[in-house]
Amino acid sequence: MARFFNGKEVELLAPTGTFEIFKQVIGENCDAVYFGGPSLNMRLMRKGFNFSLEEITEAVKIAHGLGKKVYVTVNNLLNEGELEEAEAYLRFLESAGPDAIIVQDFAVLSLVREMGLNIKVHSSVMMNVHNVEMVRALQEMGVTRVVTSREMDLMTTRYLQQATGMELEYFVHGDMCSVHGANCYFSSMVFGMSSNRGKCLKPCRWDYRVKKDGNVYPAEYPLAVKDMFMYEHIPELIHGGITSFKIEGRMRDAAFVIMLVKAYGDAIDRYINDPVGFDRSRDTKLLYENRKRDFSTGYAFGRPGLSNINRRYEGTGKFYSTGKVFSTPTEERELGEKRVEAIREALVAVAQEKKGAGRQNGVVAGIAVHVNNMAQAKAALEAGADHLYLSGDVFEPDRPFTKEDVKELAALKGNAKLYLGLPRMMTEQHFDLYEGLLFGERLPIDGLMVTNLGAIRKFVGKGYPLVGDFNLNVYNRLSADFYRGLGVGRLTASMELPLKDLAGLLAHAPGPLEAIVHGSPAIMYMEHDLYENAEVYQAIAEEDNHYVDNSILVLKTDKGENPVYRDVHGRNHLMMAKELCLMPVLKELLEAGLSVFRIEGATYKPEQLAEIVRSYKAALANPDAATDQFGRMTPVYAGYTLGVLQFDGGSASGAAGAGEEASANEAEAAVSRA
Question: Please, are residues 284 and 136 in contact by the beta-carbon 8 Å criterion?
């Protein structure tokens, strides 16, 4: 079955969460379905959902018998322990014969290529594909379709499709995230449950208050976006170069999915049959009356602002599939000695394993510092930083680093290495700007900190060594090998790695590895501008911020305050409430093979940052004294935390192991308190 309009294929892609739902949906007016298998996919929170291996095989046969397509989601990040499982699963999928798999982790793409499998690959929305360079890189790797970034407007999709010819898939209906794909680490930090591994507990749907300038604003659910609703915009989707119209909802029941398929399928058929006389709103009332949340067109026609935020309680703080709340506001865990000892033991085991295998890396360790302005940069250099990263997403009110700034720092840096950071999300205009900066007079820098696949493709081999930032989400040795193969010299480990997974990566990843060890890193990165709340709403109370200046917006619950910084591109970065500090395990990280210890310094005053850098330099010079060094440190924010190292992790994604089970139990306790 296929639909065409003016020679362009139009596919209606339906979600199915179980085999029973599939059997009801596949006979409806859709062209394709997608679902997940027993593990390694992004919907692992609801018992009884997803397909068994036998059901996958049968579903493919049924769909193909009806002339329809099947796409299987293999779209979460994999830890070291899951790579062998992934190999076996991919071999099975090749024999089962789906029309494609949907992939986030480049380890999966690497396995498909290395094993010589005849499986088409689609890039997941979690790859956050958002520029031409990324699309071209994926084409060169054999990817045949891109599920676009949720923040992409239809003018950009049209440009991407015309520039590359790539098939594009676009979410047209259902639950959306407020954060850029694979750039939300909040659930991991609080619960040890990764949003990039199918176990998000939705802190975006908590009841917050917004504070700024000493005022409190009545934004109850400022991160809880409305459901996507593109039913009335079939013509614009086709004009925007979209091949596949994707309905979100693998956790929804059959009746709800069938209603959506009938409505959207009928609308597509009516438009193809009579485009001029097309009635856009025939089933609008039906869909509106059966909505789970209010509706929005998201970013399809530009930034939606506060109009994208859901004001109805139903479906805001609850799973629409079960009626339970996702989770309740939960405090980041305090750093504790018992947990420190557990981390030390795990890392010592890694060091012993590498020594026994003769795989000590012998790399001289150093301190890297990520800075937001010249004062911080100079303070970090004076304190002895070995690597200095100039932010590509500079927080307001600071302004981007100029060419003269770079030259001044190059003259001051001595033996330190100076890197220019790139924006995390790069539009075509960003590429033009940085191409103009980097391809003319050579800058006196030692390299670039790259943040996306497109930037790697564009700037590799241009005379600037590349360092991969943490949002590349390197979770296993195969993804590390993938990026190294593209020319990235040093990689930053994913910020989401719990203890067992970090240990696994340190034990097996070749080449130098960096990790964030201190600071208040961004755990949400979003196009949505939270500062608009303080510009639109009337203040309801007065209250000062507890740990940051009143000019910085914070999201407040009874469990803490998360500062939110707006960068020069208008994007928002939500930070941890507490301060990450891995000083107590610095010696063990060093012996386990960590090469570069990174401090996220963008939010500190210069004198605070200098003191932190000096402390880590002293600890690296004398690792046995790291514990004493920690005893002399004082947190700047709401106490110290070990971040995701508070949790064990390490389980195969199909069945929770001890560490992840503990996290799941804690999450269930949070739910039950509601």
Answer: no
Q: Is 655 exposed, middle or buried (0-12, 13-18, 19+ CB in 10 A)?
A: exposed
Is residue 160 within 8 A of residue 168, CB to CB? The reply is yes
Terminal Cα-to-Cα distance of the chain (whole angstroms): 47
- Read off the amino acid at residue 244: S
Residue whose C-alpha is closest to residue 299's, from 134, 528, 532: 528
Which residue's entry shows tokens 């979100």? 248
Cα distance between residue 597 and residue 579, in whole Å: 15
CB under 8 Å to 265, separation ≥6 — which residues? 12, 28, 29, 30
Contact criterion met (CB below 8 Å) for 453 and 181: no
Average pLDDT, stretch 424-435? 96
Q: Which of 484, 466, 473 is nearest to 419 (CA)?
A: 466
Q: What strand order describes the sheet that includes 553-557?
A: 522-526, 572-575, 560-566, 553-557, 209-212, 215-217, 541-542
Q: Which of 41, 208, 130, 132 is nearest to 435 (CA)?
A: 132
Residues counted in the chain: 674
Torsion over CA: 316, 319, 324, 330 (sign) = negative
Cβ atoms of 18 and 49 within 8 Å: the answer is yes
Do the beta carbons of residue 282 and residue 215 sit within 8 Å?
no
Cβ–Cβ < 8 Å for 575, 563: yes
The DSSP result for 185-216, as a single string, is -HHHHHHS--TTTT----GGGS--EEEETTEE
Residue 317 φ then ψ, to 5°: -105, 10
Burial of residue 570 (CB within 10 Å: 0-12, 13-18, 19+) is exposed
Query: What string of DSSP letters covers 261-291?
Result: HHHHHHHHHHHHH-STT--TTTTHHHHHHT-
Query: pLDDT of 35-51, one tens digit each?
Result: 999 989 988 777 778 99
What digits encode the pLDDT tens for the residues 575-603? 999 999 999 999 999 999 999 999 999 99
Contact 593, 506 (CB under 8 A): yes
The pair of three-digit structure tokens given for residue 177, joined into one six-digit string: 């995230």
Token pair 């208008």 is found at 570
Distances (CA, A) of 413 to 189, 200, 384, 446: 34, 42, 9, 11
Given 3-state DSSP classes, what are the helix, strand and coil percentages for the chain, each rounded to the nearest 5?
Answer: 40, 20, 40
Residue type, 336: G
Write out pLDDT tens, residues 177-219: 999 999 999 999 999 999 999 899 999 989 899 999 999 998 8
* Residue position matching structure tokens 């619960």: 191
β pairing state of 447-450 and 560-566? unpaired
DSSP character at residue 183: -
Return the HEC string of 328-377.
Answer: CCCCCCCCCHHHHHHHHHHHHHHHHHHHHCCCCCCCCCEEEEEECCHHHH
- In this prediction the pTM is 0.94
Number of Cβ atoms within 10 Å of the Cβ of 186? 22
- Closest CA relative to residue 245, chosen from 230, 263, 262: 230
- Looking at the DSSP bridge assignments, the partners of residue 13 are 32, 246
Non-local CB neighbours of 656 within 8 Å, separated by 6+ positions:
664
